[in-house]
Structures are given as structure tokens and as C-alpha cells.
Amino acid sequence: MTFSFFEVVAIHILPYNVVGYSGLVSDNALLPVRLVLFQNLSIHFQKRTMKLTSLSLLAAAFATVAASPVSLNELTGANKTIEQPKATLDDADVNRKCHTVNSDYLPSLAPGAYGSSAYHNCFRTDAQVDEYLDVLVKQNAGALHCKPFVSYQGVGLPIWAYKISTGARPSSLYLHALLHAREWVATSSAVHTISTILDNIAKPTPTDTHDLIIVPLVNVDGYRMTWSGARYQRKSANEVDLNRNWYTPIANPKPPSPSSLIYPGPTYFSEKETMGLRDYLLKNRASIDGYIDLHAFAAEVMAPFGDTKEPVGGGLDEKYKTMNTKIAKAMSNKYKPTLSHQMYLVYGSFMNYAVREFAGKPSITIEMDGTDFVEPASSIITRGIRATNDDLSMHWKNNTI
Fold this sequence. Notes:
- By secondary structure, the chain is an alpha/beta fold.
- It has a single domain (about 5-395), classed as 3-Layer(aba) Sandwich (Aminopeptidase).
- The chain is about 30% helix and about 15% strand.
- It is built from twelve helices and twelve strands.
- It has helices spanning about 55-60, 70-75, 85-90, 90-100, 125-140, 185-200, 220-225, 270-285, 315-330, 350-355, 380, 390-395; strands spanning about 5-15, 35-40, 40-45, 50, 145, 160-165, 170-175, 210-215, 290-295, 300-305, 335-340, 365-370.
- Helix 1 (about 55-60) crosses helix 9 (about 315-330).
- The two termini are about 20 Å apart.
């Protein structure tokens, strides 16, 4: 069905998977989502054309059931009691037991059945993520590519990126997950998405208009710590918040100490993870049309800025508002469109950096919903939502930006 600005194609998609290996990768994701991909829809951002087609819908693909309002302390983990962390130390063991029950999935992996694999029944370690994705790369040599992209973490663990491409595309969309180690569901969602896209590779997918570059696990060494007793570990193993280590022209008036959960590091890009990502993005700036940073668990679609209450300017704020409102509605109103600073001021975040460095191209943060950073594996599927084709079609059909 063709509309004046776009063509609507319905597909069943799971969170995309990016080869990220920088430590222990968790493939905690199964978020089946009924997604509608809109092709050929452009939004004019000043004199540039802001490609929102796949970007906004890929954002919608990460939607999960809305959570109740959460406080700053809940999101930072600052209000966790000794008993609460102790109770969640068993989380890794619970998933290890799940691994035992769901262990023999590799021999049965085949195109068309990746999304239903027993692999997705548990949150996974980085070794299991790598092993799983290696098989997908081998079985989809013409569509899925991986390389030890970006950098090596402090302990020498490579960060892998996966690129999904069905042909020579001039542009790409970029997404990364797990800057914060404890946000397992972000990585699992990315892995599940790749699986489903490959299952539907013969059908219209985001790769019809853009290649997809996905880094499912940035904070690998920190992630390993969450599997070894420090379940609420937020920072890297080097104890730096990787979402505070990006360049910003606005300095934090109250610089956090090294013991703080939001310690930004000694200097901008002091960490190999952020340095490597930066170098890759700068090298490929001409071909990347949009950026998504995936987090948990506030159920919000965030627009810039996070480090100032000042507007982005140039007419872009209204366009961000329109875009994120539509994304939220496409998620059945389970998510809220917000400005990043409305949660709390964030200095040195990826989104703030990308907005300024790659001016005119959309950069948003998706906070997946939930009630805690720790979620039972049984909730992976039930937390998924369906954004119906009719709802999304109607919402975007009237878009006249």
C-alpha cells in the first residue's frame, strides 16, 4: 500500500543484534514487536533531510510494556538496600540454570527460526552471545557481517559490531546498547532484533533503505562483573560511566568523584570504549543518518539536550518533539516523549555529543520500560508489545513535516 510520503510494510521483528564483545555479553532479549516500517518518509531538519523512516521505527521496535513512574534513585540504583542487591545476586545463577535447560540450540539454528530459538529463553553471557552470532554470520554471509569494530576495552576485550545489509546502501542507521553494564535487557533486545530481521530478510525490512550497524554490548567488562556478583554494576570495570565520558562544551558544575556512579573519567574520551566508538562514527559520519542509544528502565523516548535546558534551536526542537511523540504513540502510548534533562541533567552523554557533532541528524535515547535493572527471564517475552499496523499507519500517514 503506497501513501503520498511513504510505503508501509508490516513485519514481525525482534530487537536487532549487534556483535558486541567487550566483556561478558548478555543476550537477554526477546522482545517480539509487531512493527510497521515506513519507507521513503523524510523529515526536513533545517536544510538537511532527516531520514526518520527506519530510525523512528527501529526505535519503536524496542518498546516494552510501560513501567510505573520511577525515581532518580531507582534509576541510579542509589536506593538499593543491602538486602536488595543480595537478593539479586542469584539472578546470574538463575540464568545459568536456564542455560543448562536451554543449551542445545546451536545445531538447530536455521534461517527463519532464529527468533524462536531456545537461545532467547535466557539472559546470556558474552561468550554465548558471540557463539550464537557467529553462527548467524556464517549462515547469512551475504546479509550479516561482523568485525572487531571500534576498540578494545581496558582488559583487552574487543567490541564487535554487526552490520545488516541486503545490498549496496548509501546510508546506515546506528544503534548501540549497554553503555551501562546492569541494563541487560538492552543487549538482549538488540540480539533478538537481529535474529528477527534475518528471519524476515526476504521481506521488506529496514535494510531496504538503510544498512543497520548495531553494537549490542559496549560495556563488556562491566557486563562480566554483573555476572560475577556485582549485578548492579553500572560503570565499566575501570569504574567510569561510559555515558558521561563523551565530549560536552558544558562542564558539570559539581564534578562527580571517582566513587560516584556517574564518574565521567579523568578526561573526555579517556576510555577505550568511547574513544573507539567516536573514531568509528567520525570516520563514517557521511553515511550514518541517525543514532540511537538504548538504555533501561524509564519507558521514555528522549530528545536532546541533557546537559542544558536550552533548546537545540534552528527549528529542530519542534521536529524532535513531533518525532518522539509519534514514536511514543506508535508504542501504544506506553512510553513518554521527553527531553533528556527532564529526568536529570546529564553531562557528557552520547546523545548530547552526537547531536552537536553530527548536526542535523537525529540522535535520541530510548529508555526501555521496567521496574528494575533485574528482570526475570520469564518476563522477556511478556514484556513485549505490539504496535498495530493500523495505528502506526494512521499516525504517520498524516505526517506533513
